[in-house]
Design brief:
There is one protein chain. The chain is mainly alpha-helical. It has one domain: Flagellar protein FliS (Four Helix Bundle (Hemerythrin (Met), subunit A)), CATH 1.20.120.340. Helices cover 77% and strands 0% of the residues. The chain is built from 5 helices and no strands.
Length: 142
């Protein structure tokens, strides 16, 4: 049964659009960080290693998806936040204290919320962006 569930999730994710795929990676990182925090809070540093490492790997996937040439400042700022999260997860495991992992979790949840808002707002051809440099077409208002 577990094998069929994994197969369904994999197929579902492969068919999802880019925004949904990124949300799935955030969800995975958040779940793993939460598990690590629970283990650390119980004093089970050894059991926290796998979930914290898994969260770290998910964040590394988010980092590799950054588009620095096109994303410019946003990509750099996201990279800095991802690095903070990864370092915090490592410190949490090394020190055996959940505080650093909770900091990482807060950042991940905040970034996921922002991404979710962007995905929800994104509607093809519904957005009109005007700047002071662009002439306005008749019938459009900015």
């Amino acid at each position: 049964m577990r094998r069929r569930t994994v197969s369904y999730r994999t197929t579902h994710l492969e068919r999802a659009d880019h925004g949904q795929q990124v949300l799935a990676v955030y969800d995975q990182a958040i779940r793993m960080a939460q598990r690590g925090i629970v283990h650390l809070a119980k004093g089970n540093r050894r059991q926290a290693l796998d979930p914290l490492f898994g969260a770290n790997q998910s964040v590394a996937e988010l980092e590799t998806a950054l588009d620095f040439p096109h994303g410019e400042e946003i990509a750099v700022n996201l990279w800095r936040l991802y690095e903070f999260v990864r370092e915090s997860l490592q410190v949490a495991w090394e020190d055996g204290a959940p505080g650093a992992a909770e900091d990482a979790l807060f950042v991940l949840e905040s970034l996921r919320e922002g991404w979710l808002q962007w995905v929800d707002r994104k509607q093809p051809s519904a957005a009109i962006v005007c700047t002071y440099r662009e002439p306005m077409n008749e019938g459009l208002s900015c």
